[in-house]
Amino acid sequence: MNILVTGGAGFIGSNFIKYMLSKYDYTIINLDLLTYAGNLHNLKDVEHIERYHFVRGDIRDRELLNKVFQQFEIQAVINFAAESHVDRSIDNPEIFLNTNVLGTQALLDTAKQFWKVNKSDKYCTDYKENVKFIQISTDEVYGTLGKEGYFTEETNLSPNSPYAASKASADMIVRAYFETYKLPVITTRCSNNFGTYQNPEKFIPLMIHHASNEIPLPVYGDGKQVRDWLYVEDHCSAIDTVLHKGRIGEVYNIGGNNEKENIEIVRTILCYLNKNEDLIEYVQDRLGHDRRYAINNSKISKELQWSPFYSFDEGIVNTIQWYLENMSWTTSQVPIPN
Fold this sequence. Notes:
Helix content: 25-40%
CATH topology of the domain at 2-193 and 231-256 and 294-309: Rossmann fold
Distance between the termini: 45 Å
Mean pLDDT: 93
């Protein structure tokens, strides 16, 4: 199978590429623009593999997409490419809409054209066998929860940040291409990922970096926002499962069954590093900050027999240890705010 992975130099994308190359004899084409969140160093240990190819470019570049699909005879697309930081989306929503919505549409159009059995037929809805477009989305498209309840695949989309709105919009475009053109698509919506090679502006690596250097740890509001945490390798195995066993046109929620308050995560990191909780600094809350996310992943569990392998405790220890051992990688990324 020849798989196009967009955004493959980022956090989840790079972990997924390494996971797939180690498990299958597939050819992986990594298309990434290498913005601040993309780093080819994440893939140094696989760049020598002949089945791995890197192409630098923008998913909105239709001419480039045509060349990639034609040259590599793409059979599956895993679309990780996205602007993903909520704070950045609040400051500059436009780039999120351009990349996350228009970029996704460009990918869908290219896949539709190249996968059609009869390319000359404008209304052809017959596609080559075993082709799939996997849209990687987020639980943030559902909005926020109260103290009880869980997001299911039937939960109404109610995004509260420009980032979440751009991802919800992309999800709706993907759905429309299935309903209108019968394009073989599947959407996955995951909870908060953590693990190796995550950009240090993100919550867990930021807290690890600050704590290890005894810099005050900024915590939004009262720190009692709840997230369901998913270790990145579990997310990779779930996408692998969806690619091979998922039903066309469906949405699958992917959760780690690890609900934690943000302040609990911070205290866990401080405890592991033997640092004082005096380093915690409560700061003004984020605009439109969702209070709680929690995913019901029973659909992917029952239909596709997938469940997370790692406990939160195992994952967070692995993650902290990796960042401590790779401080040079962390400091080579974008400047970390104090």
